Amino acid sequence: MAKDKKKGFFSWLGFGRKDEKETQQQEAEQQKIDAAKANELQQQDNEAAIKAAEDEAERQYQEKQAQEQAAIKAAEEEAERLHQAQQAELKAAQEEAERQRQAELAAEKAAQEQAERDRQAAEAARVAEEAERQRQAELAAAKAAAEQAERDRQAAEAARVAEEEAERQRQAAEQAELEAQEIVALRDEVLSEQTEEEEPKQVEQEKPKKEGFFSRLKKGLLKTRQNLGSGFLGLFTGKKIDDDLFDELEEQLLIADVGVETTRKIIDNLTAHASRKDLKNAEALYGRLREEMSDILAGADKPLVIEDKKPYVILMVGVNGVGKTTTIGKLARQYQSEGKSVMLAAGDTFRAAAVEQLQVWGERNQIPVVAQHTGADPASVIFDAIQSAQAKGVDVLIADTAGRLQNKAHLMEELKKIVRVMKKLDEEAPHEIMLTLDASTGQNAVSQAKLFNDAVGLTGITLTKLDGTAKGGVIFSIADQFGIPIRYIGIGEGIEDLRPFKADDFIEALFAREE
């Protein structure tokens, strides 16, 4: 409509003829373009229709193919199912046949096994019967052998007991004879002393000077010194410090009865010094050995101090034959010489000679002795002695006891009873429990010390008979293992040969070189 108006307007003005023609051409071209577009759209629609038809045909084809494939698959699956069913039936039939076969085999095997068991049971019964017959025969033989062995043992035991009894009687007779001789000698000495006092004094003649204790100690330790102390010089002179030297030293210590534990301790200490290069040569090792042995004894160097107790009670214990009663007499004389009043208790009531021996010592030194009849209760004797000593204000009471074998339990129990009885009168008594040991018994003295110490708790030790024995090294073992003070040592028969133990003097005498 706008175009018509515009056309009319331009025509009124006389313009636009040319424009109208152009417009018509443009319109014609536009129409062509539009027609081309319409054709193109129609063609696209046709192509879309064809494509749709083709897609539909393809879909129908695919659907048909799927249906055919499904039908084929279903047919195949049905065929497979039928095949599987047939196979299952066949397998079931085979399994049933196999089961029946296995059942038949099992039945056959069970029958065979039962037959074997029956055979074995019969064989076992036969073997058991045979074994029982054999066992009964062996039992009878063993019983006969045991009875014979027991008869032999009883015969041997009877012979041993008879031999021991004969030996005991011989030793008892020998001991009794020795004690009788000692008693006679003591009595003779008492009479001699009394006679000398009654005789008028004669012109004094110059008497030879008595040998000092150190000289006697040095002589008394002669045999021990050959194995220990200066006896080591031969080992060390001109030697180098090596394993061979230590082996020789160890052997020498053991020979001298120093004991395995103490010897090991000494060797270990010396080896430690040698490994640190503290020792330049064998002479230095010898000096170090002396120090080690001195250190061991130093711990036992604790002299007995008689405290201000009235009475100060000393209980003497030990086995037979160690010189216990003689030690009591010597101690009594020494305390008396120090101005102390002394009393003795004859607690060894098993041997009449022991009581008499103690009484002779008392008579010799004008020392009272409390005693009862042979076989009396030792605890009762010592109880009476303490009461008497308390009443008389005695300074020192020394109580003897029966020589006890350290392996006799009932005798050790009796010793404990004596201690208990003492404490009824004085809770602190005994103030000293002194064990007398014989140095010549070597390591047996160590076992005695252990058992007596376990039984009553020792507070001191007297080591006798150091003279004349090569086993004096046991003093080191005793000092090292127990730490019990060694109160006295004995190196001879004289009263002056029992002296308080001094470690320095002992080591000096032991290591003294021959002049």
Order of helices and strands: HHHHHHHHEHEHEHEHEHEHEEH
What is the global morphology? elongated
Q: What can be said about the biggest beta sheet? A: 8 strands, mixed
What is the average per-residue confidence, as pLDDT, rounded to a whole number? 83
Low-confidence stretches: 1-6, 193-209
CATH architecture of the largest domain: 3-Layer(aba) Sandwich
Q: CATH homologous superfamily name of the largest domain?
A: P-loop containing nucleotide triphosphate hydrolases
Number of structural units classed as domains: 3
Distance between the termini: 171 Å
State the helical fraction. 55-70%
Task: Specify the oligomeric state.
Answer: single chain
Using only CA atoms, what is the Rg?
62 Å
CATH C-level class of the largest domain: Alpha Beta
What is the spatial order of strands in the main beta sheet? 3-2-4-1-5-6-7-8
Q: Helix count, per DSSP?
A: 15
> What would you call the structural class?
alpha/beta
Number of strands: 8
CATH topology term of the largest domain:
Rossmann fold
Percent of residues in beta strands: 5-15%
